[in-house]
Amino acid sequence: MKNIAVTGIGIVASPGVSKEEFWQNIKAGKSFISPITRFDASNYLSQVAGQIENLNTNHLPRRLLKKMDRFSVMALTATEEALKDAFLDLTQEDPYKIGIFTGNALGGWLYAETELRDLYVEGREGVSPYLASAWFPAAPQGQISIYYGIKGYSKTVVADKASALMAIGYAAQVIGHKKIDVALAGGTEAPVTPYALLCCSTEGSISRRPYRPFDKERNGFVIGEGAGILVLEDVEHALKRGINIYGFIKGYGSFCDGVDRIMPDPNGKGLAKAIKAALDTAGYEPEEIDYICADGVGTKWGDISETRAIKEVFGSYAKKIPVSAPKSMFGHLLGASGAVDLIITFLAMQDGVIPPTINYQTQDPECDLDYVPNKCRLKEVKKALVISRGRGGINAVLAVERR
Amino acid sequence: MENIEKRIKELFVKLFDMKPEEVTLKANLNDDLGMDSTEMVELIVALEKEFKIGIEDGEITNKHCVSDVVRIVEDKLKQ
Fold this sequence. Notes:
Keywords (chain B): Cytoplasm, Fatty acid biosynthesis, Fatty acid metabolism, Lipid biosynthesis, Lipid metabolism, Phosphopantetheine, Phosphoprotein
CATH topology of chain B: Non-ribosomal Peptide Synthetase Peptidyl Carrier Protein, Chain A
Strand content of chain A: 15-25%
Largest sheet of chain B: none
Mean pLDDT of chain A: 96
Domain Carrier (chain B): 1-77
Distance between the termini of chain A: 16 Å
Subcellular location (chain B): Cytoplasm
Pathway (chain B): Lipid metabolism; fatty acid biosynthesis
Number of domains of chain B: 1
Number of helices of chain A: 13
Distance between the termini of chain B: 14 Å
Oligomer: heterodimer
Function (chain B): Carrier of the growing fatty acid chain in fatty acid biosynthesis.
């Protein structure tokens, strides 16, 4: 696979709404899970979430804000941060050579829920005309494109929790094929709404207790909201601009399990194939990997199958690789999770700090890797993998490298 | 009738966060005020509620100016 440079990072999540604040809090290994206050969650299995309390929307006109669900607002905010971070002035670029690749799993559910309520209570006159363009999964892509005048090859990826990582993998391939020079790629998710939380609960993978991936006492994940956008560039384009390069996307692999509509293949065969494909396209030997940012969904078979897949690919070296699930700190961002994990991985490589898996207490004999429990670790990371998985056996893996 | 013009202009300001000085009688809804089709739906529903009138599809479009909107509403109120 052709080298794709990462030159900008924009993050909006409960640990921080800027790169600096976010990364400080991740390194500190703090929990950002708090009781849900936006609606009465007392009858839900899980009553906590990773929520953003200080989302600043002052830069967006009110006329635009009322047409968007929170997932689009967060995507626009993260995009603005990413563009600033990359020192990318879009007015100086060919708009047809820039693309947008966003992933999400749920769409704009808060907008949809409230307007559907109005439809049933008040009839069609009660429904906002903006519902049609606010709720659907490609709304963030559309809003980013309109706001910045971006007109190049773009795509929204909906693949459950693997959406964002697949969107980034896809973006890298489109740049590799020279269809565009620059991609704004990542994901956004706003699941802290009554219906979205209900869907996560009925799926059976949501935790009633703290989110503790790979721990013997784990019983699922906790939801979190946020968005992560990265600026991906053709290497020559980035070098010509002479800006900071965080690192490179080198390899991508994706395979399906084809086993169950919710559960993964218990042996993680599809994931193992995806890991191998990411390593192969990057041209890496397994022993070169210094860190794996895990999916760590926190379900019994999610974590066991992920551990088995890593062991199948890495053999005896598997236990020597730090494998952590930083989403234990801020919740599972579902369709946005892969973007946030990739951002964390680039920051980890930049600073030589591996983020921890928090809430880890009891070892599970079936999950016996080095999960970097509870505290971050200083370690040089040159090459890393990011794993993202969705229901129905979706597996996606990116191989990345520090500059 | 001056009152109707004032109420309509206020609706534009309230619904679309426009500056009062932008909403002139000559302002074209699309070219000058940047209104898209979904905003037209919101405007028409708001006009129907405000003036208790019925507006058919295509009677007011974003090709019109603010003065056209005022005239159409005034005509309906006279009927």
